[in-house]
């Protein structure tokens, strides 16, 4: 028990249901354990620091990856980073993850209703066919993954290399447009908040199959890169223990996702499926898979883990006069490995303002309204492939599980075990730096929320219990909770 500024906090406080949650997070500053970084104030550089636990040689390798992460790939033969396209969503990693942080929605010009997605946007569309059946867990069906749209894939590429579309130079499979839809939420105390939601439409597709009623689309916004190696080191049994809790009286039913694992396939495993940890629906199992899958998918750069172009076998691919058989991989193995290492080894900024009485009160409110049921404050990592990440007490504020977030956030699209209403609980560490790093950065899977308050108000489904408790709080307590989140 600790007494500060007139508040009494019990450090292990029972939830209404389920196992007790430790409240040691109230005063914890080292969010990433030995990989916690220190930067003054709210810094634009907060997410770009390597883990302090790396060796000198590892830091040198991290910095090599940092350069690659920021450089643009090219479709021309004269670049050392060649292989871009023929269709893609961006030409560099940093275009989606500005300064290793969150992306932002495009600006809709004054007087216009729609804006077209172009180069350097942080958002793109996942696509798949939904026929109402469960995809079999076998190799021909991607081990239970989304069903690719015939003639496309499971991602819509709005950009194309020179000559891909003679009718629309620079366009990939289709043009994608965005507008905003607005609604209003009113608190019981009368305060009103305007909520924003992006709406997307597809035009000028090279194949009309994309317009079929069984095709589902889902926007994906670039997310922070910090602490990924630590999240990978969380023991699977600890995540599954959280899924086994009985929080049914709150309406919370956290569920793991089990997904295709490219590393297991490369090793020749007969059943290459693992627990999902990364991606907005926990649809990839490792930083390796997430990074090299994005290199192949988002940029169209083949690599030794994903050696086949995403649109191989489609009419658009064949219309380009390219070889019918997959060509040699485009990214050098060392480039691919350095990008993965960089993504694994970014540190986590330390918490700030932990002695501020309002922040302390906000931490208490965070527990009081049961945010910790999904945003599990802490873990102790297991044995990691990099010893620097082993046996670390970390505070990511995520349970790594899927939750039904209600109709307002639903995309209607399955992703392995995740249904169209489920999303992985996002880590909250580093949250206070987000809009210093990128002033226009948005929250939630499609960047719709301009503030943390808006993000909370979009919560529903399994989060309805906590959101309702939040909305019924006095204004001062709501503001304290937001200030606590900004201290992370």
UniProtKB/TrEMBL annotation:
What GO MF annotations does this protein's record show? cytochrome-c peroxidase activity; electron transfer activity; heme binding; metal ion binding
InterPro entries reported in the protein's UniProt record: Cyt_c-like_dom (IPR009056), Cyt_c-like_dom_sf (IPR036909), Cytochrome_c_Peroxidase/MauG (IPR051395), DHOR (IPR010538)
Q: What Pfam families does UniProt report for this protein, alphabetically? A: DHOR
Quote the Gene3D superfamilies the UniProt record gives: Cytochrome c-like domain
- The signal peptide, as residue positions, is 1-18
Where the record annotates domain Cytochrome c, the positions are 79-250, 357-488
Query: Which keywords accompany this UniProt record?
Result: Heme, Iron, Metal-binding, Signal
Name by which UniProt lists this protein: Thiol oxidoreductase
Which species is listed as the source? Bdellovibrio bacteriovorus
According to the entry, what is the taxonomic lineage of the organism? Answer: Bacteria, Pseudomonadati, Bdellovibrionota, Bdellovibrionia, Bdellovibrionales
């Amino acid at each position: 028990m600790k007494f500060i500024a007139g508040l009494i906090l019990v450090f292990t406080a029972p939830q209404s249901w389920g196992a007790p949650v430790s409240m040691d997070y109230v005063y914890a500053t080292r969010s990433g354990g030995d990989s916690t970084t220190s930067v003054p104030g709210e810094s634009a550089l907060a997410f770009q620091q390597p883990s302090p636990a790396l060796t000198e040689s590892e830091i040198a390798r991290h910095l090599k990856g940092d350069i690659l992460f920021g450089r643009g790939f090219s479709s021309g033969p004269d670049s050392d980073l060649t292989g871009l396209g023929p269709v893609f969503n961006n030409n560099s990693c940093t275009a989606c993850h500005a300064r290793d942080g969150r992306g932002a929605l495009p600006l809709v010009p004054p007087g216009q209703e729609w804006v077209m997605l172009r180069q350097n946007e942080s958002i793109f569309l996942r696509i798949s066919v939904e026929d109402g059946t469960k995809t079999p867990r076998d190799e021909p069906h991607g081990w239970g993954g989304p069903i690719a749209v015939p003639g496309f894939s499971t991602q819509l590429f709005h950009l194309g290399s020179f000559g891909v579309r003679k009718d629309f130079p620079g366009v990939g499979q289709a043009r994608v447009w965005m507008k905003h839809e607005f609604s209003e939420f009113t608190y019981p105390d009368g305060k009103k908040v305007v909520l924003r939601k992006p709406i997307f439409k597809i035009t000028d597709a090279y194949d009309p199959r994309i317009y079929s009623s069984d095709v589902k689309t889902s926007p994906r916004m670039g997310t922070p890169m910090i602490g990924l190696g630590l999240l990978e080191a969380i023991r699977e049994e600890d995540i599954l223990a959280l899924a086994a809790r009985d929080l049914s009286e709150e309406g919370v039913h956290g569920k793991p996702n089990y997904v295709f694992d490219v590393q297991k396939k490369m090793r020749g495993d007969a059943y290459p499926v693992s627990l999902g940890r990364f991606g907005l629906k926990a649809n990839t199992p490792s930083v390796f898979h997430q990074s090299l899958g994005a290199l192949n998918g988002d940029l169209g750069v083949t690599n030794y883990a994903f050696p086949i172009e995403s649109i191989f076998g489609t009419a658009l691919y064949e219309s380009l006069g390219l070889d019918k058989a997959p060509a040699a991989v485009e990214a050098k193995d060392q480039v691919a490995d350095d990008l993965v290492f960089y993504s694994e080894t970014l540190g986590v900024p330390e918490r700030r303002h932990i002695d501020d009485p309002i922040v302390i009160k906000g931490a208490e409110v965070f527990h009081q309204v049961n945010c910790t049921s999904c945003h599990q404050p802490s873990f102790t990592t297991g044995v990691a492939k990099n010893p620097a990440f082993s046996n670390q007490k970390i505070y990511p504020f995520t349970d790594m599980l899927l939750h039904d977030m209600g109709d307002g956030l639903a995309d209607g699209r399955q992703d392995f075990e995740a249904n169209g209403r489920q999303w992985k609980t996002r880590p909250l560490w580093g949250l206070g730096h987000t809009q210093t790093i990128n002033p226009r950065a948005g929250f939630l899977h499609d960047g719709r929320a301009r503030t943390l308050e808006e993000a909370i108000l979009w919560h529903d489904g399994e989060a309805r219990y906590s959101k309702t408790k939040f909305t019924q709080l006095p204004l001062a307590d709501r503001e304290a909770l937001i200030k606590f989140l900004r201290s992370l």
